[in-house]
Amino acid sequence: MPEAFSRRTFSKTMITLGALAPLGRLSGRQEPVIGHGDYRYRVDTRWCRADPVRHPVKDCHELALDRRGLLYMTTNDTRNNILVMNKDGVVAHAWGTEYPGAHGLTLHDENGTEFLYIADYERHAVIKTTLDGRVVREFGWPADSGKYPDATAFKPTETAIGPDGSVFIADGYGRDFIVQYDADGRLLNIFGGKDGTPSGLANAHGIALDTRDPDNPVLLVSSRAENTLKIFDLAGKWLRSVPLPGAFICRPVVQGKAVYFAVLISREPWDSGSGYLCILDENNRVVSVPGGSIPHYDGQGGLATLYQTVKVFRHPHDVLVDPDGNLFVAQWNAGGIYPYRLTRVP
Amino acid sequence: MLRFLFFLMICTRLPAQEFSLAAPQIQCEQVFFRGATRIKMDFALEGARIRYTLNGREPDEQARRYRKPLRIDRSAQLYARAFHPDYLPGETAGIAVYRTSKLPPEQVRLAAPPAEEYNTPDCMAKLVDGRAGTGKFSDGAWLGFSKNDLDGSFQWRKPAPLRAVLVSFLVNTRSWIYPPSVVEVYAADADGQPRLIARDTGTAMTENGRKIMTLPLPPGRYRNLRVVVGTWGALPDDHPGKGNSAWLFVDEIAFQ
User: Do B13 and A309 lie within an 8 Å CB cutoff?
Assistant: First the structure.
């Protein structure tokens, strides 16, 4: 028997529809999907449920994921330098008040125990902690290297852990060297630096261990000011460069066969709000540019300059890839925006 | 049933998150040109259209659609914008192009060189090559002056009918790059003495970006012109680099 349609029901319906009518002006506009090829995403800018009063942020710098699926984020707000969020974007807990330059964040499993390596450019050190913030060790400036006059010249931005437990630190805001310590903090090697050569670096913002070829692990280093990814062997010998014109790349993030970058800006000045993401395949060719231009290579293998097309991001600073291929993006100088989630579209 | 239909209607009409588009990319062969120049635009987003105007107005969805590189044979101000059905209209990009005299100066001299790193063998030729620099002062197109003013002499073998001098310079105050304090143009009078024929100041042009200063000349024919582009001087007291000198960056001096 059909539902009765009373005058009261009709009136309530019409009033509600009338109140929602302004939303109708947008009907027909599809939820945008950004990216290219096999790497396309829907954007959720409201994923993170953090309360700015309880868990304030300034710049959101980097992200890491533990084996329980909790997401860690560095911010240079010393009221809570580390925010820990669950998969629903709820802040589970927060800690850290002594990291004014909390920037790089690397999570590393060491014989079943996970540790964080926090690169702090204002403390001029990388601080290794447990997941709940207990300090285990501090890696300071390479005094014995002869490359630094004092600690203040060392402004580390990122850490990568080598297969043997070596700690590679990128001094991205200082002298652009890559400093290698053993797990106990003994200096082993130093390479890179700003010298204008192919093996030199300019704004060595990020570093990652790349084991996509398990027989030949290499280090990926972002020479951000040169818009170039540089590849070194574990001894610090420069192997090759991957030009990424128009891409001021932050740290490389290796997941599966791909390398992901948050691209802070596509053109100066540094606050141009022109950022996007960039994804490379197993051959280090750009295959997707979420928020940016369609990647195009000419007949000689040259990549056309990339640029922002859709203003999804202002200054993306790090991208985290979860086991399902979804992305989380933290942003610098973006008005205290919390991370976005990008859901991969099949 | 009614409740279900109502729920369905609301779900299909809730707005998607709204993003706007960035500005199109614009490339120009020569910003300062004698005959004609070409402007190429790009916006590599599937389904997007670039629309543009040449009349100084902001493009809307009824403006001319860009389909292929534009041939421009007169001074013009182009504005361009990207449109796409799934996004809010984009930022506007613009470029001004200037048709210059068919008679370029045959000789260019600088009374004092630019700063050492910009004092290349072709630095004087760069001033009249028609090519504009980018917003990056280190892109090779710019001449940088710190201690000296840009004091250039331009000579024509035959008197050239000219009506204006254009000075193209960069402003980026965070990088210590300031506009000219003053630009003066001198012509030789009948006795060969230098005579001031045009003057302007750049003190109000402190917004960052590439700027053009146009100095109208008295109508006439000229064989020798001296153009002095004065540096700003000391950085302001509230500047982080106070106590140091500001820089002057010029990429072109053109004549119409």
Answer: no
Q: Is A240 helix (H, G, I), strand (E, B) or coil?
A: strand
Measured between its terminal Cα atoms, the distance across chain A in Å is 42
- Ramachandran assignment for B160, one of left (phi > 0), alpha (psi -120 to 50 degrees), beta (any other): beta
Q: How far apart are CA A84 and CA A310, in angstroms?
A: 29
Could you tell me if A3 lies within 8 Å of chain B, comparing CB atoms? yes
Distance CA A179, CA A146 (A): 12
Query: Does B33 have pLDDT greater than 80?
Result: yes
Q: Which of B14, B16, B25 sits opposite A32 (nearest CB)?
A: B16
Give the distance from residue A288's alpha carbon to the nearest chain B alpha carbon, in angstroms: 12
Across the interface, of A2, A13, A311, the residue whose CB is closest to B20 is: A311
ipTM attached to this prediction: 0.87
Give the gap in angstroms from C-alpha A308 to the nearest C-alpha of chain B: 6
Q: Please list every residue in chain A whose beta carbon sits closer than 8 Å to the beta carbon of residue B136.
A: 268
Quote the minimal CA–CA distance from A20 to chain B in Å. Answer: 8
* Any B CB within 8 A of A14 CB: no
**pLDDT digits over A190-242, tens only?**
999 999 999 999 999 999 999 999 999 999 999 999 999 999 999 999 999 99
What's the pLDDT score for residue A270? 87
Interface touch A17/B15, C-beta < 8 Å: no
Mean pLDDT for all residues in chain A: 93
Shortest CA distance from B9: residue in chain A: A17
Can you tell me the distance from the alpha carbon of A49 to that of B47, in angstroms, rounded to the nearest whole number? Answer: 33
> The pTM is what?
0.86
Q: Which residue in B198, B183, B189, B165 sits closest to B231, CA to CA?
A: B183
Radius of gyration of chain B from Cα atoms?
A: 23
Whether A30 has a pLDDT exceeding 60, the answer reads: no
- Lowest mean pLDDT of A30-39, A148-157, B105-114, name the range: A30-39
- The pLDDT value given to residue B18: 87
Q: Judge whether B92 and B81 are in contact, CB under 8 Å.
A: yes
